[in-house]
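Run: sequence + beta-D-glucopyranuronic acid -> complex structure.
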Amino acid sequence: MASVPTHIGNYPEEAPTNILEDGYELWLRYRALEPGYRATCSSLLRLVVLPGGNESPTLAAVRDELMRGLGGMVGGAPEVVHTITGEGVLCVGTPATLPLVASLGLRLDCLGNEGYVIRRVEVNGFIATVIASNDEIGLLYGAFGLLRALQTGEFNVAFSLESVPKITHRLLNHWDNLDGWVERGYAGRSIFNWWELPEYVDPRLTDYARANASVGINGVVLNNVNASSDSLTVPFLEKTAALANQFRPYGLRVYLSAKFSAPMEIGGLTTADPCADEVKAWWNQMAVRIYSRIPDFGGFLVKANSEGQPGPQDYNRTHADGANMLADAIAPWGGVVIWRAFVYSDHVPHDRVTQAYTEMAPLDGRFHNNVILQVKNGPLDFQPREPINPLFGAMPHTNIGVEFQITKEYLGFQTHLVYLGSLWQEVLTTDTGARGHGSTVARVVDGSLFGTPLSMVAGVANVGSARNWCGSTFDQANWFAFGRLAWNPDHDAGDIAREWVMLTLTTANDAVDIITGIMLRSHETAVDYMVPLGLTHQMGTGHHYGPGPWINDAGRADWNPTYYSCADRTGIGFDRTCAGSGAAMQYSHELAQRYSKVHEVPSNLLLWFHHLPWGFIMPSGRTLWEELVEHYTYGVASVETMRLEWATLRDEVDPARFYQVSAYLEIQLKDSQLWRDSCITYFQKLNGMALPQGVTPPSHSLKYYKSLAFRHAPGNPG
Ligand code: BDP
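>> structure
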């Protein structure tokens, strides 16, 4: 067990840079570069050219960030100059802010509004580094791109970088309530203090905006999808406007979750029927009220007819009727309606995972152009592993965005180290088969597969008021990876992990290798100790943290782990082939075939699609029961390996963060053992089979595991 460092705040003089590593700075630490490399960078980057006078807030943010970054890494305060009269100049501009940029022959036409190019070019006979873009926000993204390159040691005399986002809408969804409580939040309370707004805007929110801009996130939904109509009242719109003003320089637009019944709750109407004239008029007025305060308001996110939320179906209207009515109201200002496909009606369906497809796919082509359908990555609910949602590829005439969950509701909260980049990459690279080979989810959500104009990657935020923002060091990596993948869904999750480690923890090669290795194994490790071989939703009711595979008395059938495992004396797994629920048939022909065949389905989805006898022989030659036990056991062993590997890094990582990660790995080890032992004990009770030879038996009875409660777990609305 790592001991609590005693010297925080009183750190020995020889290591002053390790003081106050409380995680606040995230990946924007800008520590001094190693001397040799610093010399290379300083000879190139002493000076910054920005236009004099009338500097816009975005240009000011660009300048501040470069001054801060170069000052920290290269040393000294960079000098601001207005002409190029020597070597070592960094020019930053759009053709409008710095006319010189237009004359350099840089190909800006391919960059759109947000892309940027960084090149070394000759200006006035001197070699200068140029960051150029069409709009100022591209300069900010470019500044962060350059600073990242400096931090990770990629900068050199021939440095060149061009980057254009592949996704138009790169959004964080905060599940934050107006009283500051965060649904599924594990990093303290909301960073938005509605009580104090609009008069007091916490300066910390500027750092929040910087962090988002640094990874290219360009929008933020401020309130919970389980929305309160109050967010649309004038006092709260004033508060929203104050946040919008704070975020605007960083290219971060604000959005609101809208409650469908708001016209009744705060508008005095007797209906919220989307086809009623008075309802349309009410939303039209709402749009005027919002845009008069926030001219660049992003739009509405709506959870309708799902988990008890009101929606158009309450009036026998379709999701398209509801979404289009709202979309028409905000279209004149360029707003979008983001309509969630996570529909989950009051009636227990035949198979819960078929619901979104059943309701949404027939509506393809019926949504207006400024509607984006937000589809969770899997058909169930942010489980540690799911197949892709079958809606990807099934709605060619609809703007489709993916919704990931950055906060780890089902993956051990902030105390389990699980790097989500791997999970997201697995989803994004899955071939839907919709238009032949290569029809990946990434190509659906970036709009290139079907030529849909709006594209979106959204993530349920893991940011809160915790000093380190996310509740743990490694959860910062998930915020970072989300942004990087939203910018370019083809990015490699391993490269992103490595980059984050270098920016956040250490640049020492061996340590970077070890930490990146831990991160890349971490998702599969969690799947192993929680839900191996395609099992799903084995978590306890409400909190979703610890194991509850035996639970069969939750409010409705599809809230029960037993509903998903279908485990009994003879076998385990949910039959979703034609002979079962038929859910596999919602995929393209090729995928449906693969998933339906027990010998072709990937083994990590086996029990998602098939119900099999415990004695089923796996490709390894082991029985299914033996293989399950093997996975659970391996998951625990793998956490132990992570813990031991981390322990070797004591001298590489500052004491505060080293200690917290060490302690959290202890928690994860204990929990992984609990997951393994609970699940093995329960399933063994059902099948009566012996444990494979040499396997350590669980140390407690089923009664003991069932007696464990997770009271007061954070983030649980129940
Ligand atoms: C589930 C969460 C619940 C959310 C719901 C949603 O348990 O708190 O409200 O998703 O996405 O995962 O709307």
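>> summary
The chain has 20 helices and 16 strands. The longest helix spans residues 655-687.
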